Amino acid sequence: MKFFPLVWRSLWRRKIRTIFTLLSIFVAFLLFGVLMTIRASFSLGVDVAGLDRLMVIHKISIIMPLPVAYQGRLQSVDGVESVTHNTWFGGVYQDPSNFFAQIAIEPEKYFGMYPEVHLPPEQMKAWLADRQGAVAGREVADRFGWKVGDRIPIQGTIYRTKSGTAAWEFNLVGIYDAEPGFNKTNFFFRYDYLDEMRQNGEGLVGWYVVKIKDASRSKDMAAAFDALFANSSAETKTTTEKGFIEGFAKQVGDIGTIMMAILAAVLFTMLLVVGNTMAQAIRERTSELAVLKTLGFSSLRILTLVFAESLFIAVVGGGLGLVAAWLLVQTGDPTGGLLPGFELPVRALVTGAWLMVVVGLLAGLLPATGAMRIRITDALRKV
Known about the structure:
Helix content: 40-55%
Order of helices and strands: HHEEHEEEHEHEHEEEHEEHEHHHHHH
Largest sheet: 11 strands, mixed
Structural class: alpha+beta
Oligomer: single chain
Shape: elongated
């Protein structure tokens, strides 16, 4: 008797039960793929965060500004390679739902500190020549259909111009690309333009990015920076870039922990569903398994038969679920920009494949062990 046709016939003995079990596994792994994508979006940049880049923010909160005069003092610390600053603008483009980050920076220093971000030299030259110039990430430019030369109006929610209006206008002089892991939905413009035109907050910046010469000294350098401004009106707290990005994401909650808790609950439930399906199937086929043993099937082969059925349900249902999740993610960010880098990571697909196998083996463990131990005389006596 051929092995695989036997497995196939056993699976479809109860067609409705098998179909609903497959659908349950399908939904579970579809949810797995989507949640892993969301989790990856919230942690975007953590994996590529520079070990030699430190972030200096206000000790009280990141929303509190720091004096621009701190830049020179940070640069004077032994072991510092370069220093630049970023300032959050917090404007609105056309509609409040069109969210994307707008950040005032020092163009040459910022792009020199982030080699993973790529802007054509001619666009950088045009930016430096235009005080109102701005550059946008490839994803946000594609989202709104922007092209170089466009005039971008943004309503300020934090800063007003000296004329009293909240309307700011920028000339799009470039579109940047970046290596995987870096946010391509940012909108960068020149800090000197912001500082010159804003009604309040002159001489203040949001936070500093400090590139150090020796990444192994990051802890000592962070302590040195904070000691430099101790007991001042604007004390600082320095952290690694990775810690800064994680902390920024956790302002809306520990997304990673929430996602993993949901997934654990879903997968555990699916484990029980598949396990129950297999146990029920084996109970119904006790006499058939006894007959197979009389025909020469060994206990090991019976064990393999049950495991094959369990793995089929888990792998086929889970595989289809992951494919559906991948196709869904390819349609793009459903939030319209709130989840930059909305992509299903390869490592999540690999993890999903391993989970299918684990669920299949665990769900089939008890039923398979029970089937293997069936005694022919006892099983046939129940017929």
